[in-house]
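User: Good morning. I'm curious how glycine would be positioned relative to this chain. Could you predict the structure with it bound?
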Amino acid sequence: MVGSGAREHALAWALAMSAEVVVTPGNVGIAAHGIACVDTPATGLDADLFVIGPEQPLVEGLADRLRAQGKAVVGPGCDGAMLEGSKAFMKEFLAAANVPTAAFATFRDAASAVAHLAVTKPPYVIKTDGLAAGKGVLVTDDFDEACADVRDKLSGAAFGSAGTTIVIEEGLDGPECSLLVLCDGTDVVALVPAQDFKRVGDDNQGANTGGMGAYAPMASMGDQQVGEVMRTIIAPTLRELSRRSIDFRGVLYAGVMLTSEGPKLLEYNVRFGDPEAEVLAPLYGGDLYDLLVRVGTGGLHGSSARTSGSAVTVVLASHGYPASPRQGDVIHGLGDDGQLATPLEGVTIFHAGTRRDDQNRFVTAGGRVLAVTGVAESMAEARRRAYVAATLVTFEGKVMRTDIARDVA
Ligand code: AMP
Ligand code: GLY
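Assistant: Good morning! Here's the predicted structure, ligand included:
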């Protein structure tokens, strides 16, 4: 497993139920949980399967390098990873594939972008072209704020070179769903739909973040709607991948908005979502290693990914997240294994940004610090477990939403 966040913790933990797992580089919480973490780069390791967690190494071609060594890999090569690595590329790809998505235009200079905003109806949706860890999107009704954001991004002040091309999109409205689809290059298996909470504050107020919590399954997204997304979004995407000779083996994560005109694709990611993985990995009832081997080796045909029960994850973020997260706050309520000091049934804690201080205590070391997951038969009980546990873990300045899965439990 490649990566160092809560997503990799959740996947490694689920894989470790049936496989020997090594994480590179991992983090102190994963190691405390009894899963080996090493500093050796993935290309220096030997394993039957390589699962690449984050987008950055995929965009940089790690999957290609591993495949060149004859390894089985979950994660697309550079070509497929462009679907996430460049929004301008993704939009051009979607148009070619005839996938329903927001209308858009691409800009490199502020004057023409502002001129475009002046003739656009709000909400204004402005995105950095390149990778920005989920934080490169502004959605606002305020024209002046939109213009200021355009200038910030295009000047390179906000996101460096990732921001010097921007995409301005038509604003869409409706509930959002994360549908993660495993692809082995030919066949696909959809995981249960999940919902992610991207804004930092309750009731979707405040800045966009990497994700403040999630739940699955998303009951309002029934089999029929999943079928519609598969038919209108995923199937044409697979045809276009194949037309371009892109052998996509990994996770195709469709961020979908369920609009009154039907599902429309907001974005593709080319990996497990974070925090979606923290609900999907614990919910998967089967052998995750076996399933992912099939993804890496082209053996998905006939597989399914049914789950039973419900899961809710609540992210605990550090003071100042997402703009300027503070580090070094001592975390209370964890035992030496990085789990709850007083264990609770159905609760697992996945570490995102933690480290040990000189007294061996866990302290905050990043924006998102911990993802606290509750699993139970019912959504109400899963949510109760997650929040009881999330309340037991404390640190100075803790940022947490209180409404994750509130409206479905
Ligand atoms: P993205 O990183 O592209 O998924 O965007 C982050 C968030 O911004 C999404 O989860 C949506 O809540 C919001 N968003 C993105 N694109 C649009 C759009 N075209 N219309 C309305 N909201 C959007
Ligand atoms: N949860 C959003 C993402 O993983 O990009």
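The longest strand covers residues 249-259. The two ends are 33 Å apart (CA to CA).
Let me know if you'd like a different ligand tried.
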